[in-house]
Amino acid sequence: MSNDIPTLAQWAGGPEAFERLTAAFYAKVPEHPVLAPVFAGMNPNHARHVAAFLTEVFGGPKAYTESGGSHAHMVAHHFNRHLTETQRRAWVALMLDTADEVGLPDDPEFRAAFVGYLEWGTRLAKINSQDGAAPADPSAPMPAWNWGPPGGPWQG
């Protein structure tokens, strides 16, 4: 096995690719019939924070944690939002459409990993948005997504 395998973030085009993705995605959200209410009053820096988070998750620079973010911090943003399955699916579908529009790689290997993370992350967000969700352990590591499957059940 070669040590020259790029991270998913490198393959995607680095932080700039995720910044293009999230800027285009969140520009569409205010007009989206299902997602607009979820993101009403969104912080103007939200797209940049999500781009930094995704870049880090996919093996890129750790700008998200270096600016004070953490996995527990991201989880906390979803508390008491009561996200629905319809909203979760709409978020994933719009993100995938936007990935195509901004030119993220569409090779099967990258897209399998990318879709895998979107499914995992949005399902976790939905769980953490419901009443009674427990705060994440502040010492929990950031998710780290790579080319292969994530492994067994993850407690987070």
List keywords for this structure.
mainly alpha, Globin-like, 0% strand, heme, Hemoglobin_trunc, oxygen binding
What does this structure look like?
By secondary structure, the chain is mainly alpha-helical. The chain has a single domain (8-128), classed as Globins (Globin-like). Helix content is 51%, strand content 0%. The chain has helices at residues 8-12, 15-28, 46-57, 63-66, 71-76, 85-102, 108-128. Helix 2 packs across helix 3, helix 2 (15-28) packs across helix 6 (85-102) and helix 6 runs antiparallel to helix 7. The model has no long low-confidence stretch (mean pLDDT 91).
Give the SSE string: HHHHHHH
Number of strands: 0
For CATH, the homologous superfamily is named as Globins
Main sheet? Answer: none
Structural class: mainly alpha
Would you tell me the overall average pLDDT? 91
* Integer-rounded radius of gyration: 15 Å
What global shape is seen? globular
Number of separate domains:
1
CATH topology: Globin-like
CATH domain class name? Mainly Alpha
Fraction in beta strands: under 5%
Q: Give the terminus-to-terminus CA distance.
A: 30 Å
Helical percent range? 40-55%
Count of alpha/pi helices = 7
Poorly predicted tracts of residues: none
Secondary structure elements and pairings:
Blueprint lengths: L7 H5 L2 H14 L17 H12 L5 H4 L4 H6 L8 H18 L5 H21 L28
